[in-house]
Amino acid sequence: MKQQQKTDQVVEEPTAVYGTASIAAGETVERIRAGLPMVEFVALQELLGLSAEALAQHLAISRSTLVRRRKGGRLDMQESDRLLRYARLYARAQVVLQDDDAARDWLKQPARALDFVTPLTFAETETGAREVEALLGRIEYGVFS
User: Fold this and answer.
1) Number of domains in the chain
2) Residue 50: which domain range?
């Protein structure tokens, strides 16, 4: 897992963003079951350029739950799973678009192929996320979408 220094705390960036092979799939599943630390939420928030409230909305976390998670320091299993879904999509967009800013912007812009819904909104379900990944695959290979 990569780490960034941020003031006096260490921010762990989501493993899925970097495709780090050092953590086995079983370990990732165990980390999700245990709940990812809130620093992973903050790291993804910064990578996507979203407010905490906007990312929480995509992850189906209410404002009051977000406050509790910040106090407790961990997401629950379902929230962790959804967070890694978004990290995976960001990583895929980075690879396809070959630029951090382009990936971030693409995820936030309505896409014709997604019925003019943003990829971030479309990916609020696993089925929607798979469609976003398929769209990125079509873009990567130059298939008209």
Assistant:
1) 1
2) 3-140
Nearest to 111 by CA among 89, 140, 90, 135: 135
Asked whether residue 98 is domain-assigned, the answer is: yes
Residue 145, in any domain of the structure: no
8 A C-beta contact, residue 40 and residue 30: no
Give domain status of residue 79, yes or no.
yes
Structure tokens at 65: 């739950």
Structure tokens at 96: 């396809």
Q: Specify the pTM.
A: 0.82
Residues in a beta bridge with 5 = 10
Which pLDDT score is estimated for 143? 83
Q: Return the SS3 of 70.
A: helix
Select the more confidently predicted residue: 122 or 21. Answer: 122
* Beta partners for residue 37, in sequence order: 74
Is residue 86 one of the residues assigned to a domain? yes
Tokens of 111: 């896409």
Distance CA 78, CA 16 (A): 16
Residue 28 amino acid letter: T
